[in-house]
Design a protein that fits this description.
It is a single chain. With about 240 residues, this protein is mostly helical. The protein has twelve helices and five strands. The strands form two sheets. The protein has a three-stranded antiparallel β-sheet. Helix 10 packs antiparallel against helix 11. The chain is globular and about 60 Å long.
């Protein structure tokens, strides 16, 4: 978020005042360990979002777990590093167990009442059919809602769903430092798309190296990349794999 108002009042100065309090950004490891003990995987104090606001002038709108997975310095130190910000990773064992609980034959669900999943897909369809209005975040081509990126780049922005229409909402421009972070990822995505369209192995590898989350030596990264290609071979027809 680049701006926030309530009844005509700019909330960002108040937010800057709040996060400048002593110990606001204190180590949140104890909080994270409490969440871990009670398996509250998706709960966090919001320190990552507030730190992005402190450092780059834009407030992260997503949850801290989602924000941290794209930004390398929050991931340094592994689980310990994440816990400093009050964030805990979801263990694979929990994901596997959760998946197994859903893996039932169709008959299992036919006798049960329908429960909302929390996803907005149905609400989006209803709004497009004229059964109500919906304003939400979606991935759509850039039509000017993010002025620092080229037109046509797919960006996640706020949009209005109305009968037979989806209109992206234009946001305030990102601060230069935040725009630099976003543009770097957009450039990596462009490199990746070009490599995929041209079945270009070395272009794809260059795109991977350019991603800020890759900290390996190039020879180590190349070994990993080749292993990834081998596992994905059935999905890469026409590629000349190393």
């Amino acid at each position: 978020a680049t701006a926030a108002f309530w009844r005509g009042h700019d909330l960002f100065p108040r937010l800057r005042e709040e996060i400048s309090r002593p110990k606001f950004f204190a180590d949140a490891t104890r909080t994270a360990k409490d969440h871990l003990a009670h398996e509250r995987w998706f709960t966090s104090p919001g320190l990552v979002a507030f730190d992005l606001f402190r450092r780059f002038g834009a407030l992260g709108a997503a949850g801290d777990r989602h924000l941290a997975e794209f930004v390398p310095w929050y991931l340094e130190g592994g689980v310990t590093g994440l816990m400093r910000w009050g964030v805990i990773p979801t263990p694979y064992s929990w994901r596997k167990k959760r998946r197994s609980l859903k893996d039932h034959p169709v008959e299992h669900y036919r006798s049960r009442p329908v429960q909302p999943s929390g996803e907005e897909g149905v609400a989006q369809i209803e709004a497009l059919m004229g059964l109500g209005n919906l304003d939400t975040n979606v991935n759509v081509p850039n039509l000017g809602q993010l002025s620092q990126l080229p037109s046509g780049h797919v960006v996640e922005t706020y949009a209005q769903f109305r009968r037979d229409s989806l209109v992206p909402m234009v946001a305030h421009p990102l601060p230069k430092s935040a725009a630099t972070l976003v543009k770097r990822i957009a450039d990596v995505q462009t490199l990746t798309l070009d490599a995929a369209l041209n079945r270009d192995v070395h272009g794809a590898f260059s795109a991977m190296l350019a991603d800020p989350l890759v900290h390996l030596q190039t020879d180590q990264a190349w070994t990993m990349f080749k292993a990834m290609l081998r596992h994905c071979r059935p999905c890469l027809p026409g590629w000349k794999l190393p």
